Amino acid sequence: MSRYPEFDLQQIATQPFAERASKVRIEDFARPAGPGRSFAEFLRSLPNILAGPEIASIANAVVDARARNRAVVVSLGGHVVKTGLAPVLIDLMERGLVTCVAVNGALAIHDSEIALFGATSEDVVSGLQTGTFGMAAETAAFYNDAVTEGVAAGLGIGESIGKALVESGAPHAAYSLLASAHRLGVPVTVHVAIGTDIVHMHPQASGAALGEGSLRDFRILTQQMAGLAGGGVLMNLGSAVVLPEVLLKAIALLRNRDPEGFTDFLGVNFDFIQQYRSNQQVVTRVRSIGGRGVALTGHHEIMIPLLAQAIVEARSETRG
Question: 53-318: what fold?
Protein backbone atom coordinates (compact mmCIF):
# COMPACT_ATOMS: atom_id res chain seq x y z
CA MET A 1 0.00 0.00 0.00
CA SER A 2 1.22 3.49 -0.81
CA ARG A 3 2.47 5.61 2.02
CA TYR A 4 0.64 8.59 0.46
CA PRO A 5 -3.04 9.14 1.30
CA GLU A 6 -5.68 8.97 -1.46
CA PHE A 7 -8.80 11.07 -1.85
CA ASP A 8 -11.84 9.16 -0.59
CA LEU A 9 -14.34 8.94 -3.48
CA GLN A 10 -17.00 7.63 -1.09
CA GLN A 11 -17.32 11.17 0.23
CA ILE A 12 -18.50 12.77 -3.04
CA ALA A 13 -22.04 14.09 -3.44
CA THR A 14 -23.95 12.94 -6.53
CA GLN A 15 -27.18 14.13 -8.11
CA PRO A 16 -29.93 12.58 -10.26
CA PHE A 17 -29.26 12.94 -14.01
CA ALA A 18 -32.64 14.68 -14.40
CA GLU A 19 -31.40 17.52 -12.19
CA ARG A 20 -28.25 18.07 -14.22
CA ALA A 21 -28.21 20.71 -16.96
CA SER A 22 -27.22 19.15 -20.30
CA LYS A 23 -26.00 21.27 -23.22
CA VAL A 24 -26.60 18.61 -25.88
CA ARG A 25 -29.95 16.90 -26.49
CA ILE A 26 -31.03 14.53 -29.21
CA GLU A 27 -33.53 17.04 -30.57
CA ASP A 28 -30.49 19.20 -31.45
CA PHE A 29 -28.82 16.46 -33.52
CA ALA A 30 -28.26 16.66 -37.27
CA ARG A 31 -30.61 14.86 -39.61
CA PRO A 32 -29.17 12.42 -42.16
CA ALA A 33 -28.71 13.43 -45.78
CA GLY A 34 -31.37 12.69 -48.34
CA PRO A 35 -31.58 13.08 -52.13
CA GLY A 36 -33.52 15.99 -53.56
CA ARG A 37 -33.44 18.02 -50.36
CA SER A 38 -33.87 21.78 -50.79
CA PHE A 39 -31.24 24.16 -49.47
CA ALA A 40 -33.61 25.40 -46.78
CA GLU A 41 -34.15 21.80 -45.67
CA PHE A 42 -30.40 21.27 -45.65
CA LEU A 43 -29.92 24.27 -43.35
CA ARG A 44 -32.58 22.96 -41.00
CA SER A 45 -30.85 19.56 -40.98
CA LEU A 46 -27.66 20.96 -39.46
CA PRO A 47 -27.11 20.25 -35.76
CA ASN A 48 -28.36 22.96 -33.44
CA ILE A 49 -25.02 22.75 -31.65
CA LEU A 50 -21.99 25.12 -31.64
CA ALA A 51 -21.60 26.61 -35.16
CA GLY A 52 -24.48 24.58 -36.62
CA PRO A 53 -27.14 27.30 -36.37
CA GLU A 54 -24.83 30.26 -37.02
CA ILE A 55 -25.10 30.53 -40.82
CA ALA A 56 -28.88 30.70 -40.63
CA SER A 57 -28.59 33.19 -37.77
CA ILE A 58 -26.26 35.45 -39.77
CA ALA A 59 -28.50 35.19 -42.82
CA ASN A 60 -31.54 36.20 -40.80
CA ALA A 61 -29.62 39.12 -39.32
CA VAL A 62 -28.69 40.37 -42.82
CA VAL A 63 -32.28 40.15 -44.05
CA ASP A 64 -33.59 41.82 -40.90
CA ALA A 65 -30.98 44.58 -41.20
CA ARG A 66 -32.04 45.46 -44.73
CA ALA A 67 -35.73 45.27 -43.83
CA ARG A 68 -35.00 47.89 -41.15
CA ASN A 69 -32.83 49.95 -43.51
CA ARG A 70 -29.68 49.22 -41.53
CA ALA A 71 -26.28 48.81 -43.15
CA VAL A 72 -24.69 45.53 -44.25
CA VAL A 73 -20.98 46.24 -44.69
CA VAL A 74 -18.68 43.57 -46.11
CA SER A 75 -14.87 43.74 -46.00
CA LEU A 76 -12.91 41.46 -48.31
CA GLY A 77 -9.37 40.20 -48.73
CA GLY A 78 -7.90 39.52 -52.18
CA HIS A 79 -8.28 35.76 -51.82
CA VAL A 80 -12.06 36.12 -52.10
CA VAL A 81 -11.79 37.30 -55.71
CA LYS A 82 -9.02 34.80 -56.50
CA THR A 83 -11.33 31.95 -55.48
CA GLY A 84 -13.99 33.05 -57.96
CA LEU A 85 -16.55 34.49 -55.55
CA ALA A 86 -17.20 37.88 -57.15
CA PRO A 87 -20.44 36.72 -58.88
CA VAL A 88 -21.85 35.59 -55.53
CA LEU A 89 -21.16 38.96 -53.90
CA ILE A 90 -22.33 40.93 -56.94
CA ASP A 91 -25.64 39.08 -56.74
CA LEU A 92 -26.06 40.13 -53.10
CA MET A 93 -25.39 43.75 -54.10
CA GLU A 94 -27.93 43.51 -56.91
CA ARG A 95 -30.52 42.20 -54.43
CA GLY A 96 -29.85 45.17 -52.16
CA LEU A 97 -28.49 42.92 -49.42
CA VAL A 98 -25.03 44.54 -49.23
CA THR A 99 -24.78 48.31 -48.78
CA CYS A 100 -21.00 48.86 -48.77
CA VAL A 101 -17.88 46.86 -49.63
CA ALA A 102 -14.40 47.56 -48.23
CA VAL A 103 -11.39 45.88 -49.86
CA ASN A 104 -7.61 45.93 -49.71
CA GLY A 105 -5.31 46.94 -52.55
CA ALA A 106 -4.74 43.36 -53.68
CA LEU A 107 -8.43 42.73 -54.28
CA ALA A 108 -8.72 45.89 -56.36
CA ILE A 109 -5.85 44.69 -58.55
CA HIS A 110 -7.22 41.17 -59.01
CA ASP A 111 -10.67 42.59 -59.68
CA SER A 112 -9.31 44.98 -62.32
CA GLU A 113 -7.45 42.17 -64.09
CA ILE A 114 -10.57 40.01 -64.09
CA ALA A 115 -12.59 42.84 -65.64
CA LEU A 116 -9.96 43.72 -68.24
CA PHE A 117 -8.50 40.33 -69.16
CA GLY A 118 -10.72 37.63 -67.64
CA ALA A 119 -7.77 36.22 -65.66
CA THR A 120 -5.62 37.04 -62.63
CA SER A 121 -3.19 35.62 -60.03
CA GLU A 122 0.32 35.13 -61.38
CA ASP A 123 2.83 32.45 -60.39
CA VAL A 124 4.93 34.28 -57.79
CA VAL A 125 7.73 31.69 -57.59
CA SER A 126 8.22 31.59 -61.34
CA GLY A 127 8.03 35.37 -61.59
CA LEU A 128 10.64 35.86 -58.89
CA GLN A 129 12.98 33.46 -60.67
CA THR A 130 12.70 35.33 -63.95
CA GLY A 131 12.40 38.83 -62.47
CA THR A 132 8.96 39.37 -63.96
CA PHE A 133 6.79 39.15 -60.82
CA GLY A 134 4.42 42.10 -60.67
CA MET A 135 5.57 43.51 -63.98
CA ALA A 136 2.35 43.27 -66.03
CA ALA A 137 2.44 46.59 -67.85
CA GLU A 138 -1.28 46.91 -68.62
CA THR A 139 -2.35 46.19 -65.04
CA ALA A 140 -0.07 48.84 -63.56
CA ALA A 141 -0.89 51.44 -66.19
CA PHE A 142 -4.65 51.03 -65.87
CA TYR A 143 -4.73 50.93 -62.07
CA ASN A 144 -2.36 53.83 -61.46
CA ASP A 145 -3.86 56.04 -64.15
CA ALA A 146 -7.38 55.38 -62.85
CA VAL A 147 -6.36 56.25 -59.30
CA THR A 148 -4.45 59.40 -60.24
CA GLU A 149 -7.24 60.74 -62.46
CA GLY A 150 -10.08 59.75 -60.12
CA VAL A 151 -8.49 61.14 -56.98
CA ALA A 152 -7.75 64.42 -58.78
CA ALA A 153 -11.48 64.58 -59.52
CA GLY A 154 -12.34 64.14 -55.85
CA LEU A 155 -13.04 60.39 -55.82
CA GLY A 156 -11.73 57.63 -53.59
CA ILE A 157 -9.75 54.73 -55.02
CA GLY A 158 -12.71 52.35 -55.16
CA GLU A 159 -14.92 54.75 -57.09
CA SER A 160 -12.02 55.77 -59.33
CA ILE A 161 -11.29 52.21 -60.45
CA GLY A 162 -14.94 51.18 -60.73
CA LYS A 163 -15.71 54.23 -62.87
CA ALA A 164 -12.66 53.64 -65.06
CA LEU A 165 -13.58 50.00 -65.62
CA VAL A 166 -17.12 50.91 -66.67
CA GLU A 167 -16.02 53.78 -68.92
CA SER A 168 -13.27 51.71 -70.54
CA GLY A 169 -15.78 49.10 -71.63
CA ALA A 170 -13.85 46.36 -69.83
CA PRO A 171 -14.95 43.16 -71.59
CA HIS A 172 -15.48 41.18 -68.38
CA ALA A 173 -16.94 43.94 -66.22
CA ALA A 174 -19.89 41.73 -65.29
CA TYR A 175 -17.47 39.68 -63.14
CA SER A 176 -15.95 42.73 -61.46
CA LEU A 177 -16.97 43.77 -57.95
CA LEU A 178 -15.76 47.33 -58.46
CA ALA A 179 -17.38 47.82 -61.86
CA SER A 180 -20.64 46.24 -60.69
CA ALA A 181 -20.69 48.35 -57.53
CA HIS A 182 -20.18 51.51 -59.61
CA ARG A 183 -23.06 50.47 -61.86
CA LEU A 184 -25.29 49.79 -58.85
CA GLY A 185 -24.29 52.83 -56.82
CA VAL A 186 -22.87 50.72 -53.98
CA PRO A 187 -19.82 52.31 -52.32
CA VAL A 188 -16.61 50.27 -52.61
CA THR A 189 -13.68 51.56 -50.59
CA VAL A 190 -10.05 50.52 -51.15
CA HIS A 191 -7.62 50.60 -48.24
CA VAL A 192 -3.99 50.58 -49.36
CA ALA A 193 -0.77 49.86 -47.50
CA ILE A 194 1.90 51.55 -49.59
CA GLY A 195 4.47 49.08 -50.92
CA THR A 196 2.30 45.97 -50.54
CA ASP A 197 0.84 45.87 -54.05
CA ILE A 198 2.46 45.13 -57.42
CA VAL A 199 1.19 48.39 -58.92
CA HIS A 200 3.34 50.34 -56.43
CA MET A 201 6.44 48.92 -58.18
CA HIS A 202 5.78 50.92 -61.35
CA PRO A 203 6.79 54.49 -62.26
CA GLN A 204 3.15 55.57 -62.78
CA ALA A 205 2.35 55.02 -59.09
CA SER A 206 1.60 58.24 -57.23
CA GLY A 207 2.05 58.09 -53.48
CA ALA A 208 0.07 61.29 -53.16
CA ALA A 209 -2.90 59.90 -55.08
CA LEU A 210 -2.80 56.52 -53.36
CA GLY A 211 -2.59 58.12 -49.94
CA GLU A 212 -5.27 60.74 -50.52
CA GLY A 213 -7.59 58.25 -52.24
CA SER A 214 -7.23 55.65 -49.51
CA LEU A 215 -7.80 58.24 -46.78
CA ARG A 216 -10.87 59.51 -48.61
CA ASP A 217 -12.16 55.94 -48.83
CA PHE A 218 -11.59 55.53 -45.09
CA ARG A 219 -13.88 58.48 -44.43
CA ILE A 220 -16.47 57.12 -46.89
CA LEU A 221 -16.39 53.72 -45.19
CA THR A 222 -16.75 55.27 -41.74
CA GLN A 223 -19.83 57.19 -42.88
CA GLN A 224 -21.33 54.01 -44.35
CA MET A 225 -20.63 52.10 -41.13
CA ALA A 226 -22.69 54.63 -39.16
CA GLY A 227 -25.70 52.73 -40.52
CA LEU A 228 -24.68 49.60 -38.60
CA ALA A 229 -26.02 50.97 -35.31
CA GLY A 230 -29.26 49.41 -34.17
CA GLY A 231 -29.29 46.16 -36.10
CA GLY A 232 -26.77 46.26 -38.94
CA VAL A 233 -24.27 43.56 -39.93
CA LEU A 234 -20.51 43.90 -40.39
CA MET A 235 -18.87 40.94 -42.13
CA ASN A 236 -15.13 40.46 -42.59
CA LEU A 237 -14.52 37.83 -45.25
CA GLY A 238 -10.89 36.89 -45.55
CA SER A 239 -8.82 39.89 -44.46
CA ALA A 240 -6.45 39.09 -41.61
CA VAL A 241 -4.74 42.41 -40.86
CA VAL A 242 -5.40 45.52 -42.97
CA LEU A 243 -9.18 45.64 -43.03
CA PRO A 244 -9.74 44.55 -39.41
CA GLU A 245 -7.52 47.46 -38.37
CA VAL A 246 -9.35 49.87 -40.68
CA LEU A 247 -12.70 48.69 -39.31
CA LEU A 248 -11.50 49.18 -35.73
CA LYS A 249 -10.52 52.81 -36.41
CA ALA A 250 -13.86 53.48 -38.10
CA ILE A 251 -15.63 52.00 -35.07
CA ALA A 252 -13.51 54.20 -32.80
CA LEU A 253 -14.54 57.33 -34.73
CA LEU A 254 -18.22 56.41 -34.60
CA ARG A 255 -18.01 55.66 -30.88
CA ASN A 256 -16.24 58.99 -30.37
CA ARG A 257 -19.12 60.82 -32.00
CA ASP A 258 -21.86 58.75 -30.37
CA PRO A 259 -20.61 56.47 -27.57
CA GLU A 260 -24.10 55.50 -26.46
CA GLY A 261 -25.80 55.18 -29.84
CA PHE A 262 -23.22 53.34 -31.96
CA THR A 263 -23.90 49.84 -30.72
CA ASP A 264 -26.22 46.86 -31.20
CA PHE A 265 -24.98 45.30 -34.44
CA LEU A 266 -23.55 41.94 -35.51
CA GLY A 267 -19.87 41.45 -36.30
CA VAL A 268 -18.97 38.34 -38.33
CA ASN A 269 -15.50 37.01 -39.14
CA PHE A 270 -15.26 34.38 -41.89
CA ASP A 271 -11.85 32.92 -42.68
CA PHE A 272 -10.11 29.63 -43.36
CA ILE A 273 -7.77 30.40 -40.42
CA GLN A 274 -8.94 32.42 -37.46
CA GLN A 275 -6.45 35.24 -36.98
CA TYR A 276 -5.86 37.43 -33.94
CA ARG A 277 -6.71 40.84 -35.39
CA SER A 278 -9.79 39.83 -37.35
CA ASN A 279 -11.28 38.08 -34.34
CA GLN A 280 -10.37 40.87 -31.95
CA GLN A 281 -11.58 43.78 -34.06
CA VAL A 282 -14.65 42.27 -35.71
CA VAL A 283 -15.87 39.87 -33.02
CA THR A 284 -14.47 40.71 -29.56
CA ARG A 285 -14.47 44.51 -29.94
CA VAL A 286 -17.99 44.50 -31.34
CA ARG A 287 -19.14 42.49 -28.33
CA SER A 288 -17.38 44.93 -26.02
CA ILE A 289 -19.52 47.83 -27.25
CA GLY A 290 -22.81 45.98 -26.89
CA GLY A 291 -23.02 44.09 -30.17
CA ARG A 292 -22.85 40.41 -31.05
CA GLY A 293 -19.85 38.65 -32.60
CA VAL A 294 -19.59 35.38 -34.51
CA ALA A 295 -16.51 33.64 -35.98
CA LEU A 296 -16.80 30.82 -38.51
CA THR A 297 -13.91 28.91 -40.03
CA GLY A 298 -13.79 27.33 -43.47
CA HIS A 299 -12.69 27.67 -47.08
CA HIS A 300 -14.00 30.85 -48.69
CA GLU A 301 -15.03 29.01 -51.84
CA ILE A 302 -17.39 26.83 -49.77
CA MET A 303 -18.47 28.99 -46.85
CA ILE A 304 -19.27 32.24 -48.68
CA PRO A 305 -21.61 30.60 -51.23
CA LEU A 306 -23.28 28.75 -48.34
CA LEU A 307 -23.81 32.02 -46.52
CA ALA A 308 -25.05 33.82 -49.63
CA GLN A 309 -27.56 31.06 -50.39
CA ALA A 310 -28.75 31.14 -46.78
CA ILE A 311 -29.29 34.91 -47.05
CA VAL A 312 -31.26 34.57 -50.27
CA GLU A 313 -33.37 31.77 -48.75
CA ALA A 314 -34.05 33.84 -45.64
CA ARG A 315 -35.13 36.81 -47.78
CA SER A 316 -37.43 34.55 -49.78
CA GLU A 317 -39.04 33.15 -46.63
CA THR A 318 -39.74 36.60 -45.21
CA ARG A 319 -41.46 37.60 -48.44
CA GLY A 320 -43.62 34.47 -48.43
Answer: Deoxyhypusine Synthase (3.40.910)
